[in-house]
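As agreed, record minuted below.
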Amino acid sequence: MAKLASDIHKGDFLVIDGNICRVIEVDKKSGGGQFGSIVHAKYMDLKTGHVHDKRFNPSEKVEEADIQLIEAVFSYKDQDTYYFMDENTYEQFEINERVLGNYAKFIKENDKVELVLHNGEAIAVNIPEKVKVKVVQTGEVTSGTDKSVWKPAIIEGNIEIMVPGFIKTGDTIVISTEKLEYIGRE
């Protein structure tokens, strides 16, 4: 099925150069005068895990990928492959770590996810924009009593991010899976 490039959105699955891709970013610019409008899309090739950029004319047709969404549970990880199971059919699916990106650092055994299937094969996981994680370690704010200062913290997955001064070890916080940035406190 085809759609106009002007209708592309972040998270869409498209067929680009014969490969199934997930749109990561879309920037639509309207031109003025002699310059026409363009749609600039950043996308990940789900077969290779490589990220590419492409510019489209807004009236250009792009092919949508024929996908199916199912709920599955994360079972285990073996080297760089993650295994998921459909709890209804007990069928197992595997996804390479590079397709999961930063989300691979946060997924835990028995977490429910939405798998993206193409021709019965798992090609991606619909990754949430934010996740809740525990702060494993953080220090005290050292610059006087100013609690608006940011400080480093280690969160689950052994990742260091910057958090506001009022966050303490053991707190549950919400972070962006894409940018690995603090969003708020649970």
Summary: Residues 130-185 form a domain with the OB fold (Dihydrolipoamide Acetyltransferase, E2P) fold (CATH 2.40.50.140). The chain has a mean pLDDT of 88. Residues 74 and 126 are 13 Å apart (CA to CA). The helical segments are 97-100.
